[in-house]
Hints:
The chain has 150 residues and is α+β, with helices and mostly antiparallel strands. It is 25% helix and 15% strand. It has a domain at 8-111. The chain is built from 4 helices and 5 strands. The strands form 2 sheets. It has a 3-stranded antiparallel β-sheet with strand order 2-3-4.
Amino acid sequence: MPDVVHIEEPRQGVQFGVKLENDAGGTTQAFVAARDVKTAGYVDENGNAVELSRDAAKIPVSFRPGTAGVVDMTSTASAFSQATGTGMAPDNGGRLDGATFALQMLRFPYRQVFAQSETNTIAQMDAFTPSLAGIAEQYSDALQAIPEED
């Protein structure tokens, strides 16, 4: 019996998306969780790193009137430029380029975690937490396993 099972959508391409949330007035608001452009990690309104997207600052995303699902790039770029603590404009000299815009819009595939233990969340989340140390160790082990040619 496995301790943890992760079921995740395939990662075959770049996916952009927004989160939707209903407010008290019954309208739906679209937003993205703010990320620091230097680390790609989530940040709060003050630029402090937070681990989960739900704890990050919410940057509003606007849609073009009368065209459901079509992002109003001008308004959304303006909202991104006004976001503080992300390293985007005005922190970046007033410059908002395509790379920083794309970083904010990037969404990872949905993942559902099933676990035996409610108390050991570290083991549940570490399965998909990349680290340079882990990658270096894997490559080192793989290289050592290759037989040397004479």
